[in-house]
Automatic annotation (TrEMBL), chain A:
This is Succinate dehydrogenase hydrophobic membrane anchor subunit. GO terms for molecular function: heme binding; metal ion binding. Part of an enzyme complex containing four subunits: a flavoprotein, an iron-sulfur protein, plus two membrane-anchoring proteins, SdhC and SdhD. It is a multi-pass membrane protein. It is found in: Membrane. GO terms for biological process: tricarboxylic acid cycle.
From TrEMBL, chain B:
It comes from the Bacteria. Its cofactor is heme. GO terms for biological process: tricarboxylic acid cycle. Its main location: membrane. Membrane-anchoring subunit of succinate dehydrogenase (SDH). Keywords: Heme, Iron, Membrane, Metal-binding, Transmembrane, Transmembrane helix. It comes from Marivita hallyeonensis. The chain crosses the membrane at residues 28-48, 68-87, 108-127. This is Succinate dehydrogenase cytochrome b556 subunit. Heme binds at H84. Part of an enzyme complex containing four subunits: a flavoprotein, an iron-sulfur protein, plus two membrane-anchoring proteins, SdhC and SdhD. The complex can form homotrimers.
Length: 123, 128
C-alpha cells in the first residue's frame, strides 16, 4: 500500500464506481465507424437487390467482405454500449440488468452470425 | 440525509415542461436513431446468413428485405444512419470543447439535420 500514490488508490472508487472506460470505448468505436460506415453503405447498398449468385460472388471478394465483417463487429459493439446507456438512464432495478444482459447476447450473437455468414461466402 | 423530505419536492425541469429546442430535439433524435438501427442491423445479418446458406433460404430473406416494407425500413434506416453519423461527428467536436457556444451550436445542429437529408438523397441516387 505504501508504494501506491493517493491517486492510484482513489481510481475506480468514485460515485460512478468506474472511470472513463465506457466513454473511451464509445469514442474509439465511433471514430472507427466514421471510416467504416460510408464504405459499408456503398458496398452493401450496391449488392442489396442482386441475385443469389451475384451476392455470393460479391462477398467472395476481399474488400466488401472485410468491410462488412468489420462494420458488424464494431457496429454491434458500439450499439450495445449505446443501448447500455439508454437502459441505465431509464430503467432501474433487476430489469436494468436483464435488459443489458439480453441485448449484450443479441449484439454479440448477431455480430457472430454475420461474420460467420460473410466468412462462409468469402472462403 | 435522515430527515430529508423525499416526496413532493420540486423536480428540475424535464422533457414535459421544456419547450423543444434544436439542441434538445437533435440530441433526442441521436438516441432514437442509434437504437432504432438495431432493426435494420438484424435484417442485414439475417439476409447475410440466408445468402451464405442456400438459394431457397436467400429467396425468403431477400424477398422480405427487398419488399416494400423492407425497402421502407432500409430507406428510413439509411437516413437514421447518416443522421447518427453526423450527430456523432458533432459529439466528437463537442468532446474537444469546441463549438459549444449557442451561436455555433445552432448552425452545427442544422448542419446535422440538413446534411443527413442530403447524404440520404445522395446515397439513394447513387445506389438506385
Amino acid at each position: 500500500m505504501a508504494f501506491l500514490t493517493d491517486r492510484k488508490r482513489a481510481v475506480g472508487w468514485g460515485a460512478a464506481k468506474s472511470g472513463t472506460e465506457h466513454f473511451w470505448a464509445m469514442k474509439k468505436s465511433s471514430v472507427a465507424l466514421l471510416v467504416l460506415i460510408p464504405f459499408f453503405v456503398f458496398t452493401f447498398g450496391s449488392v442489396l437487390g442482386s441475385s443469389f449468385e451475384e451476392v455470393q460472388a460479391y462477398y467472395a471478394r476481399p474488400f466488401p467482405a472485410i468491410i462488412a465483417a468489420l462494420t458488424l463487429i464494431v457496429g454491434f459493439k458500439h450499439f450495445n454500449d449505446g443501448f447500455q446507456t439508454l437502459i441505465e438512464d431509464y430503467v432501474h432495478g433487476i430489469w436494468e440488468k436483464v435488459l443489458i444482459l439480453g441485448m449484450t447476447c443479441i449484439s454479440y450473437g448477431a455480430a457472430a452470425i454475420g461474420v460467420f455468414a460473410i466468412a462462409k461466402m468469402a472462403l | 440525509m435522515a430527515d430529508v423530505n423525499r416526496g413532493n419536492r420540486p423536480l428540475s425541469p424535464h422533457l414535459q415542461v421544456y419547450r423543444p429546442q434544436l439542441n434538445s430535439v437533435t440530441s433526442i433524435l441521436t438516441r432514437i436513431t442509434g437504437n432504432a438501427l438495431i432493426v435494420a442491423a438484424l435484417m442485414i445479418v439475417w439476409w447475410l446468413l440466408a445468402a451464405s446458406t442456400g438459394e431457397d433460404y436467400f429467396a425468403v430473406a431477400n424477398g422480405f428485405v427487398t419488399s416494400w416494407f423492407g425497402d421502407l425500413v432500409m430507406f428510413l434506416s439509411l437516413w437514421a444512419l447518416w443522421y447518427h453519423t453526423l450527430a456523432g461527428i458533432r459529439h466528437l467536436i463537442w468532446d474537444e470543447a469546441k463549438m459549444l457556444e449557442l451561436e455555433k451550436a445552432e448552425p452545427l445542429g442544422w448542419a446535422v439535420v440538413i446534411g443527413s437529408v442530403v447524404l440520404t438523397v445522395f446515397s439513394v441516387v447513387v445506389l438506385w
